[in-house]
Amino acid sequence: MKLGDKSRRYGAIALLVILEFVFVGxxxxxxxxxxxxCAPNAEPETPGLDLPLIGRxxxxxxxxxxxxxxxxxxxxxxxxxxxxxxxxxxxALFGSVRTASYGKGLAASFHEGVDIxxxxxxxxxxxxxxxxxxxxxxxxxxxxxxxxxxxxxYVVLTHACPSGMVYTLYAHLATFSPSVIRGRFVKAGDVLGxxxxxxxxxxxxxxxxxxxxxxLILNARFSQWYRAQKFKHGHGKFNGWNLLGVDPLAVxxxxxxxxxxxxxxxxxTLPAAFTIVLSARRKPxxxxxxxxxxxxxxxxxxxxxxxxxxxxxxxxxxxATESERRLLGAHQSVVLRVDxxxxxxxxxxxxxxxxxxxxxxxxxKKWRDMLMY
Length: 373
Known about the structure:
Layout: H1 3-35, E1 95-102, E2 105-111, E3 114-117, E4 130-132, E5 137-143, E6 154-161, E7 164-171, E8 173-176, E9 185-186, E10 191-195, E11 209-217, H2 222-228, E12 243-245, H3 248-257, H4 263-268, E13 274-278, H5 285-289, E14 304-308, E15 314-319, H6 322-328, E16 333-338, H7 340-343, E17 351-354, E18 357-360, H8 362-372
Antiparallel strand pairs: 1-2, 3-11, 4-10, 5-6, 5-9, 6-7, 7-11, 8-10, 11-12, 13-14, 13-16, 14-15, 17-18
């Protein structure tokens, strides 16, 4: 064999070896990619929301909190809060503090959070206040379109507590920080954006403020229920209907008093506005994600009893007794008891009184359907 022929033969063998390595590498890459998680731009799933949330090793992000703006949240300082158009100072606070059209007249209206006034403005009157993450958490949802929500531009953070996921919401923002990206971890005190007046309809510049909420998520299957109603602008699990808040000022006050503050221990101190028995084939998703709020034996599928806050937050649940189940008859739900003091002005109108009897109203039936879906 000539030297040239031998060189060509060795060259061909080397080329085949290289091609084989390339082929094996390509196969391994494709296999790895097939098993890899979805990219961030795939159909959005909330970080951690659909995973088991009972991690006993989880830290408690609510042991260290910062205020959402530079304003110190003192409920006795009216200058800290931004009243609604009525100008009444209490209209900026949490609860049935407002009045709105309801049916053929006016009635109490519930406000799920607190409205924090802008403390710094430029020469044109535009707010300059930074908005901060109140606790360590993850960016779960960012709505960048001002006109498709009463919240305007808003961001939701989720905070993985040992007993379940807690949300905080920051609404009516003017702009977002570049670091506010869905799925990204944030620390307490990280800047989320700037106070604004975005909403639908828009809020007057003079009343620009931060709407802040903290609470629990009603149903991880909310999106499916919402689509079944053929509504628009769902915002996934982070539609306001699916977010049930507690008084943010009470959370900050209690956390300052108790260094070992636990959000779910705080839930246990809240008064029940009403108790209700519900017919249900399966345990509501809410209690699967917040098992510490379920009492007694596992759900048996014959009906459950719940204690509920004024705005519909389930405070605790258990299997209904036989006598409680008999009260249901052919009904889906029966209101057992109402505490007038805890119900207050009843701004959510979940329960209504007719001829001396309490029952779920139109809003209450919608709440029940969302809970049980």
